Amino acid sequence: MSDALDYATWAEALREGRLLGLACGCGHTNGSPTGACPHCGSRDFERVELPTEGVVHSETTIQVPPSTFEERGYQVVVVEVGEAKVMGRVDGDGVAIGDEVRLSGVVAEDDGNPAPRFEAI
Amino acid sequence: MARAAVVGAGMTKFGVHEQPLQELFGEAAFAALDDAGVESRDLDALYFGNAMSGQAENETHLGPRMASHIGAAGLEVQRFEDACATSANAFKNAVQAVDAGVHDVVLVGGVERCTPETGKDTPEMTRIFASASHRQYEQPTGLTFPGVFALLTKRHMHEYGTTEEQLAEVAVKNHAHGRLNPRAHFGKETTVAEVLEGPVVADPFRLMDCCPFSDGASAVVVTSDDLADSYDAPVDVTGVGHATDVVPIGDKTSLTATQAARDAAAQAYEQADIEADDADFAEVHDCFTGAEILASEAIGFAPDGEGGTYAAEGRTSLGGDRPINPSGGLKAKGHPIGATGTAQIVELTEQLRGTVGERQVTDADVGVAHNLGGDAATTVVSVLEGRA
């Protein structure tokens, strides 16, 4: 039986400081909710609690933001959290690929939709 | 046997245009029809691409309006939206239709306005473009499209040692090519030093690493293989591959592979019965300099990790052994989103006919087009060949 994870549940957990993902029998752990595994098509997932500490997989600092974001110069990161990767922001002076970060809260500048916020360890 | 043939090609200059969408599209469509010697009433269908004019100009349901404007009201019209891969997807569906015998003669094309002529400034248009990223798992971070390709490129730099100078070399090359293309948005050369002095948009990309916001339209006339010889200058379509990759970026297996492009290229090459080395040149989706490096590796023009080196050594320049973007690419020719895919087909057609003048690829017999949409989520790869 599918151990489903929807957006509302993922977002609520994120606001509480937890990262939820979906581990699939094919070996992929997905960092975002999805209806079936994008890698193999299986709906037979296990909902998993992802680590809230991880390693920066890639990063960039946005100097020309969309109109809905007021401040420029924020750093967007893809972070390896256990077997999954999630996209978020990093506060502070900036991190590089390979640096360790931990979940520190949410960014909610886009109509209140949360994105993971990380800080350097 | 070819899957289809392109028998007419036309496009507007890419740049800043005041005309309404239908007039812009009409200019490209009439040029393609005239090139083919086809009248609007001879068409069986229109395969039409437009990505975001609903958001940018409050204009939707454009298909019948385009058909009416070109004197083909009543025509069956399909409209495609696949972010930046919009009109390549239209082209793929047109090729399938004539290949399957559904239609004999079709028009394929796209139009878009992205400059401030739309009334939208850079922050607003940046937001509209970002709508092609994941609404829940990417957009709330403040991700932009320069940011999408910056994330992919930064990882490539980390894994392979690709440098900012190599990225700049792509811009220098494509501006040099674009200067030879009278339909290009930019007609001016640049230097590595000039690129590296520009303001940062999303590191590692500076202003000159990024394609411009452009307005424009492009169109081609496509017929079945067995009808092609009744036209003056047919070019064969021998393969079209189309694949998608996992969305969002975090769940992709690799940030540097652009897997959809690899899958689409494999399909297209298999249909055409060629290897990447058999292709004489490619038009690839260089929305950012780093995107061209990833694309050159994904379609097999450079080994993995060596796309930057190939650009810096001039191997992907006109006159090099693996020429890429002789038109100037999106970087210099411009990128009116929904018009870009068929504009690549226009360049392939004219290169294979040998009619592009100073930017002609020597002995061009096989050309490849790579059109990418979204966060590397969609890619269409087409193979065109001179008709024997």
Q: Would you mind describing this structure in some detail?
A:
The complex is a heterodimer of chains A (121) and B (388). Chain A has one helix and eight strands; from the N terminus they run αββββββββ. By secondary structure, chain A is mostly beta strands. In chain A, strand 5 and strand 6 form a beta hairpin. The relative contact order of chain A is 0.20. Chain B is α/β, with parallel strands linked by helices. Chain B has helices spanning 21-36, 53-57, 62-69, 86-99, 122-130, 145-160, 164-178, 192-196, 259-272, 289-298, 307-312, 329-333, 337-353; strands spanning 4-11, 45-49, 76-80, 105-113, 200-202, 205-206, 215-223, 235-244, 281-283, 366-373, 378-386. A nine-stranded mixed sheet of chain B has the order 3-2-4-7-1-8-11-10-9, with helices on both faces. The longest helix of chain B is centred in the C-terminal third of the chain and has 17 residues, at 337-353. The chains are: A mainly beta (121), B alpha/beta (388). At the A-B interface, strand 4, strand 5, strand 6, strand 7 and strand 8 of A face helix 5, helix 6 and strand 5 of B.
